[in-house]
Amino acid sequence: MTTTADLVTPRLDSFASPVLSKVVRRLVSANADVHDVLPGAVQELVKIRASQLNGCGFCLDMHTKDAAVAGETSVRLNLVAAWREATVFTDAERAALELAEFGTRLSENVGVPSDVWQRAAEHYTEEELAALVGLIATINAFNRVNVMLSQPAGSYEPGQFG
């Protein structure tokens, strides 16, 4: 059974571990490869949605704060989980959020259906789609690292990691 103490003390320090620090640096590098390809708002929305689905409080703390500093509104941030019913997202953002959901829930959905991919392809170039795939893959990896480590949420400061 998980206790409150378990939830506020990480199991490992990912920066002190020689192995895990290398893995995290490579994930950061992979994430940087998509940085200039997609609009910042789309990147943060995708990271937030995947983190919600994976239950990663640390990543939610980070990406909601970073998005707010970048000018994202609290209304949009609060509606990411209900994006299908919300009128505050563009069609392109909705397509990215849908792809993020299917790319995160691979085992539940048996992959990404062609119609989901096609909706994304209507709004993004091939290179932007490649960036979305890379972004979804890396945020899911970050989520898994942080959830397995029980990385606590709430103390992230925007820009803390560069």
UniProtKB/TrEMBL annotation:
<dbReference type="InterPro" id="IPR029032">
    <property type="entry name" value="AhpD-like"/>
</dbReference>
<protein>
    <submittedName>
        <fullName>Carboxymuconolactone decarboxylase family protein</fullName>
    </submittedName>
</protein>
<dbReference type="InterPro" id="IPR003779">
    <property type="entry name" value="CMD-like"/>
</dbReference>
<dbReference type="Pfam" id="PF02627">
    <property type="entry name" value="CMD"/>
</dbReference>
<feature type="domain" description="Carboxymuconolactone decarboxylase-like">
    <location>
        <begin position="32"/>
        <end position="101"/>
    </location>
</feature>
<dbReference type="GO" id="GO:0051920">
    <property type="term" value="F:peroxiredoxin activity"/>
</dbReference>
<dbReference type="InterPro" id="IPR004675">
    <property type="entry name" value="AhpD_core"/>
</dbReference>
